[in-house]
Every structure is written in structure tokens, then in C-alpha cells.
Design a protein that fits this description.
InterPro entries: Ribbon_hlx_hlx. The protein contains two helices and two strands; from the N terminus they run H-H-E-E. By secondary structure, it is mainly α. A hairpin with a 5-residue loop joins strand 1 and strand 2. Helix 1 packs across helix 2. It is extended, with a radius of gyration of 16 Å. The N and C termini lie far apart (about 45 Å).
Length: about 70
């Protein structure tokens, strides 16, 4: 019996520009494209939960001022 987790495989159509960003992101985090997509989904979930709770999600300056708010439709 294998201890490998069951995985779902996904086909994904991306523009060449978005694919290049995906590859660049993978290099910058020292992972692969799947790692980037998994982390992006995790960040999206954080943003969704924040919205549901009436909170903001974004990028803060060192003094905690929200400089960029990421909004979810």
C-alpha cells in the first residue's frame, strides 16, 4: 500500500504572459508551478474569509498602514 496522497490532475489554459508569470513565481519561491498555484489558492481563501468577516485583505506598510487592498468580487 502506498502512502502517497491521492491527487487530482488539472488541465489549465493560460495566456503565454500568465504562464511566464507562473514560471517566474515558481523560480522565485524555489518550487514548481503546482506549488505556486496551491499557494495562490490558499491566499485566495484567506481573502474570501476576510471579506466574509467584513475585514480587509491587503499589503501593509511596515507601520501597518494598508497600502494595497486586495478586493474580492
Amino acid at each position: 500500500m502506498s502512502s502517497t496522497k491521492e491527487m487530482v490532475h488539472l488541465n489549465l489554459d493560460l495566456s503565454p504572459e500568465l504562464y511566464e508569470k507562473l514560471e517566474e513565481s515558481a523560480k522565485k519561491i524555489g518550487g514548481n508551478k503546482s506549488d505556486v498555484l496551491r499557494q495562490a489558492i490558499a491566499l485566495m481563501q484567506v481573502a474570501i474569509v476576510a471579506k466574509e468577516q467584513g475585514e480587509k485583505f491587503g499589503i501593509a506598510e511596515p507601520e501597518q498602514t494598508l497600502s494595497t487592498e486586495i478586493t474580492i468580487p
